[in-house]
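Hello again,

I reread your note about wanting to compare the complex against the isolated chains. To keep things tidy I'm splitting this into two emails, and this first one only covers the full assembly. Below are the input lines as submitted, including protein chains and any nucleic acid or small-molecule components. They are followed by the predicted structure of everything together. The single-chain runs will come separately.
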Amino acid sequence: MSATVTAPPPATESAPAPKRRSFLGLDRDGLMLAVPALIPVVIFSVYPLLRGIYLGFTDAQAGANAEVNFTGLENYRNLLDDSYFWDSFRIGLIWAFSVTILQFFASLGLALLLNQKLRLRWLARTLALVPWAMPPVVIGIMWRLVYHPNAGILNDVLLDLRIIDENVDWLSSFSVALPAVIVVGVWAGMPQTTVVLLAGLQSVPKELHEAAAMDGAGVWQRFRNVTWPAIKPVVVAMTTLDFIWNFNSFSLVYVLTQGGPGGETRLPLLFAYEEAFRYGNYGYAAALGNAMVVVIAVFVVFYLRQRVREANG
Amino acid sequence: MSRSTPVATTLKYLALACYLVFLAFPLFWLVSTALKTPQELALIDPTWIPDEITFDNFRAAFDEQPIVRSILNTLLVAGVSCAVTVLLSIPAAYVMARYRSALSRLTLVWVLLSQIFPFILVIIPLFLLLRDLGLYDTYIGLIAVYVVWSMPFALWMLRSYVETIPIELEEAASMDGASKLRTLRSVIAPLLAPGVVAAGLFAFVSAWNEFLFALVLIRDPDLQTLSLTLVKFIGAEGVARLGPLAAASLVATIPSLIFFAVMQRRLTGGLLGGAVKS
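Full-complex prediction:
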């Protein structure tokens, strides 16, 4: 007691005195409180995930009594020979990159506007949050109505503006289906990115901006030298996560096109879903999932390296 | 800071207007389509605002498809998922915040993994597991899955709320002889109310909106959640059917929209609270 009077411990170390260690460093009370959450997580999340990774190295098929054999890398050899696999990864990467980048710039612009005192800002703020509250299935249906070849508003507007001369069937046309789907992806994903960027912008001290303006820095210079460095960590984290989410996305495109026309919008997860639940090739579909993990891991590593570089100054 | 020139101001409003149009016009079109008569929907040159506003599409949607039934189903599934998620998360989040144990680090790793793993790796084994447990095509199975998959985020959010509660409060309680569980229930839980609302809302809305798990794990038409029913609805798309489809979609959005409207500030506050801390 007397020692702490002269040298009080820093406030950050206010955790309770070390308890008698047992499982995972928890005492009996802690264990009792954590176990009800841990058990379902292990059963319905950790175990399926591990078994899913394992299934990717087997020939598991649908059917109650089908025998499961370990086949090593055979699934992956087959994947490499499967042009549908390459197509779905190519489409998945185009989709994920386009949606993430467009979404980022659209959200950044919106966040910068929302961060200023403009009239109607409340309306934009509310509208920007609405897609968040909508089920992806409803977003898909809504955009099907917008893109509808006869009863859709998009063709009507573009015809009136004389940008097109006849109705376009946006979601069934080979050349425009993917771009059309990407626009929906951007629309649906904007709220989250905007909210996070707006929070980042609001954490930039106003005094910095004022000082820079006093020194005669223009809008662009202030953005580059004051705003950007402050929000960059948030931006890197957000875009990495956005990319991974988009690469893993399913529902929106399933509702819009089911992967059509002719597989033009068949994202990796749509392909894997068909393999698993239409054709019953569980092992092959899981192998596809493992291949997706490899792509995702590349981005995670990129992100971590960025973090480390920042931490090292 | 705002010594903007008139030109700059005009440009800003122009940009804001573009955003408003982009964000609003699909919503506008959904509402407009839902209120049109079949005759008007079949016009070659679609009208923007319905000449004749009708609510028949809503009646048709409710009559022809089991929309009411699936709304009740979804309310049940989302409500129970939300309650169970919160009940399990509060104590676990408390442990994560107050103990320096490997558990917190493991949970963090798991939170990240669950965010980035492709669902296909999880959903095939889940399907097999639930089938073996006799929980395939049941609400218990679906709810268990929803609880577990919205828990990472709920835990993460609640943990940051627990950390804002001064530890002295607990020390005082334990000095008075209260047990851990008692302290948690009567000291921590009441102070956690905003966090609980945010986490519960998150769990509710994710279950309400979810589609892929339900698609794989539910087959019985009587058990279908709203997303499944709506997707079935898409199939036969004569132009006249667009009205009821739009009406049903609007109805499907209302509950989560209400939740969002009520909790908007708290939710973004909660998200940001968590984001700023970590």
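For quick reference: The longest helix of chain A spans residues 83-114.

B.
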